[in-house]
Structures are given as C-alpha cells and as structure tokens.
Amino acid sequence: MKLIRFGEQGKEKAGLQLSDGSRIDASGFGGDYDEAFFASDGLARLASWLKSNQSAAPRVAASARLGSAVCRPSKIVCIGLNYRDHAAETKAEAPKEPVLFFKATTSLVGPNDPLVRPRNSTKVDWEVELAVVIGKRALYVSKEKALDHVAGFSLHNDYSERQFQLERGGQWVK
Fold it and tell me: What domains can you pick out in the chain, each with its CATH number?
C-alpha cells in the first residue's frame, strides 16, 4: 500500500495510491497516519478496510495537493555524513560512529509545497534522502529483527542553511 495524505495544508485527509496509480480517499477508515495509527497495527487494519471499501471509496483527483504521507511523527532522526562523498564534499572526515541529529516534525511538508527559507539565508542546500518510517516501538532490536519494525519507506528532501550551520556555530539543527 502507498499511503498518501491530500488536501489543503494543515487539513489533509488520509488516502491511498493504488497499484494502477489512481488515488482513493481513505478518511472513511478513520484517523490519520500518525503515531497512534502505526502503534495500533494500523497498516494491517487499513489493508483489511481496503479489501472491503476500495471500490466504494471516493476517488482523489490527480490535481489534489499531496501532503506528507505521515502525519506529525514523534521525531525525525537524521544521520549526517552518511556516505563518503558527502563527507568529502563538506571537507569532513567520514565519522567512525553515525552523526545523529533531529529535524522538527513541522518540517515535513508535501512534495510540491514551497520551501520556506530562513530570513537572511544565503546558502540553502538540499539532499534527497531515504526516509525509513518506523511502524512500532523498537528498543534494542537485533539486526535480524530490524525490518520487522519498519512500516515503509519514503523519499525525503532534507534542507539545510549551510551558512547558518557551518559558519555560525557548527550546529546541525540550524
């Protein structure tokens, strides 16, 4: 299943993109694709709902604005300098341990929404990242069991203001 959320910013509804590319309104399922949805086996419940409701669910126009597929997750954990070329590009050594930092959950927007640049920004940079959506609580999970906790994957545009980040204090959250 491909989860979508559609509609006016801040008022998105849950939907699904079907294998033929068409989109349906899944708001009749109840709830949104948030932390509670994933914690309560929402994907399995949604798959069951889809079997019974796919043909009757309202269609979503191809022109409808898409929002973030996930509604306000509890956190966005990022890994910096996660490949050798990026480390070299920033003139940094490849780290021996992962460099972790957080992004504000309010930074998740739809794929075609405009970027809000910080006032006085001069060096906005971006990277396309693979986002891993964790679908259930995970604590000290073995490598072999890790994918059991993954609800899905998404593309994520990660924006940074490099002048603020690198030239004004070296903080990764700027």
Answer: 2-53 (no CATH), 76-107+115-167 (3.90.850.10)
